[in-house]
Prior knowledge:
Layout: H1 11-28, H2 32-38, H3 43-51, H4 70-83, H5 85-105, H6 108-119, E1 125-128, E2 144-148, E3 151-162, E4 169-175, E5 185-191, E6 197-202, E7 213-224, E8 228-229, H7 235-271, E9 273-274, E10 277-278, H8 283-316, H9 321-346, H10 357-367, H11 374-386
Parallel strand pairs: 1-4
Antiparallel strand pairs: 2-3, 3-7, 4-5, 5-8, 6-7, 9-10
Helix pairs in contact: 1-4, 4-5, 4-7, 5-6, 5-7, 7-8, 7-9, 7-10, 8-9, 9-10, 9-11
Bound molecules: acetoacetyl-coenzyme A (CAA).
Amino acid sequence: MNNDPLGLITSEHEMIRQAARDFAQKEIAPIAAEFDESGEFPYQTIKKMGEMGFMGIEVPEEYGGAGMDTLAYVLALEEICKVDASHGTIMSVNNSLFCYAVLRYGNEWQKQNFLTPVAAGEKIAAYSLTEPMSGSDAGSMRSRAERDGEFYILNGRKSWVTSAPVADIILVFIMTQPDLAHKGISAFLIDTTQPGFSRGKKEPKLGIRASATSEIVFENFRVPVENRLGEEGEGFKIAMSVLDAGRIGIAAQSLGIAEAAYEASLEYTREREAFGQKIGQFQGIGFKLADMKTRIEASRLLTYAAAMAKEKTKKSGGRFTLEASMAKLFASETAMFCAHEAVQIHGGIGYSKELPVERYFRDAKITEIYEGTSEIQRLVISRLETGLR
Ligand code: CAA
């Protein structure tokens, strides 16, 4: 089976997929285990990924990007994550949570000043919605921004911000009118070099350990009105629609992890012998491989279909929420399933840091949590399908 079940992949797509595959093998594979172990941020490879055009794949060339489509982004991200999900996380936040947001909702000045350096890979970006007391219930945030002439003054604490320890620019969602609940949330583009901004300690994580995550704190942080993305009160809708794009990225990441776990397992079952035969000859192992492969191909169909749904809305408008949530839900549970089976198939050596299989297992778990847990995806899908709340 080739990796183009729907006949969607053009020669341009194939080129970026191959470039990402080669880059991941040559530059990331040799360092992935070391950076996972140390938890250091992989500045050098991320910089090179920026030079390759991987940090703003869907951004038009006039704004520093590669000017390609969503499927191109998905294919490249899948290849990077097949080798290392940490690099993939950094890439996905830049592309779908930041660049997509500024491209869709930003004005010309914001595109020139914030989008272009991030899409060109010269600056690292982050997206900040979650707070210590508001995760899945994103609308219940407590951080505040008060208008003061041509500025807003921000106060509060946001948590679990991917890339925050290294980010130059952060898209932050914050309450400007608490009495309006989610309709009182606004979005701001934050320059992290300004006074009143600080970063909390780096989170010690189970997986994606080379992608840095921390809290961020605002203490009387002054942000100019011109840095507000969209209108006042539009922040929640911006956050949600941008997460739709982000969830396609997490689906692609999950697909990459699942494929890596599957391919390692396939190779091992052809070589490892027990009771006088290859372990792949045991039905108990063969059936695991069959389930892994089937779920991977189903994830691929959902993920590529979600990419195409998003692509369509670029011309026609509308939402791709359902497609993105279904892809994220199924692909992330597939990544966890495949990584779990891969460790089981490998036995003791799968539990050891000698092989990357245990890293796939640790990295897979976050895909069921960030950018909306599996439970939130089920809620989104069921609400859209039933029309009930
Ligand atoms: N696109 C556009 N608008 C949307 C939307 C979407 N996908 N989803 C909701 N909206 C709009 C609704 O139409 C509604 O508009 P009106 O006020 O005009 O009616 C408004 O937003 C409120 O919607 P809901 O009533 O559905 O809101 P809710 O409070 O019930 O929340 C939710 C819905 C699905 C639970 C949402 O809060 C959610 O997705 N939660 C999970 C948050 C999440 O994914 N967090 C991860 C953060 S990022 C991260 O992981 C860290 C990182 O660095 C990667």
